[in-house]
């Protein structure tokens, strides 16, 4: 298989184990985030939900991938994670199945994201939960954001990639 060129070249697994193609997301501006329920950055779920509510009608989507690779901060089952996010943050954007984002078992999507948008000093690894990748409507990575970058700080970049509000 040739090197993946856009997010459309990848699949994701839903919490129920079903595999979906991300090709149907092409044409949307997407924020991909690795998340955890027991992290100091977990309150960012609220900001991510706010971005999703604000821009979803203009072709924006947030896709969260729970990950337990950082301090064991996402130990729950898919059902427990979904319930926690819904009850505590009113989450309505897509929550995928748990993934690894680093190491030999890293999900292919995250291998590609890290290669397209390395971190500080060219680091290919993800340092912690709530690392965010902004993908343009063409399916290509626009920018990587650190866990400390709050969702509301990304709004201007999202706005610039979306069609004008009608």
From TrEMBL:
Domain Thioredoxin: residue ranges: 1-163
PROSITE patterns: GLUTATHIONE_PEROXID_1, GLUTATHIONE_PEROXID_2, GLUTATHIONE_PEROXID_3, THIOREDOXIN_2
Positions of the catalytic residues: 39
Keyword Oxidoreductase: yes
One GO MF term attached to the UniProt entry: peroxidase activity
Regions crossing the membrane: none
InterPro entries: Glutathione_peroxidase, GPX_AS, GPX_CS, Thioredoxin-like_sf, Thioredoxin_domain
UniProt superkingdom: Bacteria
Matching Pfam families: GSHPx
GO BP field: cellular response to oxidative stress
Keywords recorded for this protein, A-Z: Oxidoreductase, Peroxidase
Family affiliation: Belongs to the glutathione peroxidase family.
Listed name of the protein: Glutathione peroxidase
Source organism of this protein record: Novosphingobium silvae
Lineage of the species this protein comes from: Bacteria, Pseudomonadati, Pseudomonadota, Alphaproteobacteria, Sphingomonadales
């Amino acid at each position: 298989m040739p090197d993946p060129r856009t997010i459309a070249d990848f699949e994701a697994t839903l919490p129920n184990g079903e595999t979906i193609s991300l090709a149907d997301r092409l044409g949307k501006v997407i924020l991909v985030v690795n998340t955890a329920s027991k992290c100091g950055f977990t309150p960012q779920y609220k900001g991510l939900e706010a971005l999703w509510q604000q821009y979803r009608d203009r072709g924006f989507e947030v896709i969260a991938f729970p990950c337990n690779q950082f301090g064991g901060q996402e130990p729950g089952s898919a059902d427990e994670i979904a319930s926690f996010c819904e009850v505590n943050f009113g989450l309505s954007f897509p929550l995928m199945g748990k993934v690894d984002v680093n190491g030999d078992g890293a999900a292919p999507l995250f291998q590609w994201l890290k290669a397209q948008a390395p971190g500080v000093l060219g680091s290919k690894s993800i340092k912690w939960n709530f690392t965010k990748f902004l993908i343009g409507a063409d399916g290509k990575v626009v920018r990587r954001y650190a866990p400390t970058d709050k969702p509301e700080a990304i709004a201007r970049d999202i706005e610039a990639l979306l069609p004008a509000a009608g």
